[in-house]
Write a structure and sequence with these properties.
Keywords: Oxidoreductase. The chain has 334 residues and is an alpha/beta fold. The protein has 9 helices and 12 strands. It starts with a strand and ends with a helix.
Length: 334
Amino acid sequence: MVKVLLTGGSGFIAAHIIDILLERGYDTVVTVRSEEKGQKILKAHPNTPKEKLWYVIVKDVAEEGAFDEAIKSNPPFDYVLHTASPFHYNVSDPVKDFLDPAIKGTTGILKAIKAHAPTVKRVVVTSSFAAIVNVKQHAKVYSEKAWNPVTWEEAMDPAQTYRASKTFAEKAAWDFIESEKPNFDIATINPPLVLGPVVPYLNSLDAVNTSNSRVSNMVQGNNKDGLLPTGTFLWVDVHDVAFAHVRAIEVPEAGGNRFFLVAGLYSNKDIADIIRETYPQLEDKLPPKDSSSDMPADVYGFDNKKSIEVLGIKYRSLRESVSDTVKSLLEVGV
């Protein structure tokens, strides 16, 4: 049986990856930061035997040797999906809060695999559109070929720290492969804004993942005076991102590739309009109906052909994704 280690098992994307791995018959071990988080994952899958789903604790991914014990396994691992990386906007120390966990967490897992897990054939790393985008001069069409040109000095600006952390972490992964020539290859998954159902066992309303916060804020009436700026005009559904991670270990030719996972363009106005149409009872909580879209006429384009042709992704629609997200938020008590 094929065995997979999934890091960052209590994250938003990882929770959906677990479901797909189990559906497809993989033996799955997740890393979590605490016993409590591990137990929550097991309780959410009550009919899954422990030989099919288990957890190991990695308290701090930035620590030297953090993954050394987690990667040792009998039977050994065949693949690793590395999703663990911080994503929030509470930056007090850019290096400690973001850059170290992202970069050292990524190089740390790769070093541990090389040293202790010779059976691993491929590692899939969760990167981001943040490692592709150039906020100073947008590309006409974004694809996997583009890299964020952010510098270490610019990363000290809290507005740039998250994007820099993803850029430097992904570059460190590719550099590791080139310099260390390990027993495995890598693939990276680069999504923009990720929308989709929250996972009740992981999320309190206070801790709804950052991507979905724009939807939860609308549903809770926090933006009824007007729309907030959209920011990034590209989005993708979490189911498609999770599926891409699993397909990237299943498709031989995925190795050595970045995959830009993007379903299309959107604005916050589009999200508000979909909520209004699909959940009319929330009308009084939403931004004004006559709010205008902030999407520029010359907004950048995107090329997602590689994800469709190599991984076989069939992208969900924005309407389906937003509607599913709202449904899940109402179920957890918005």
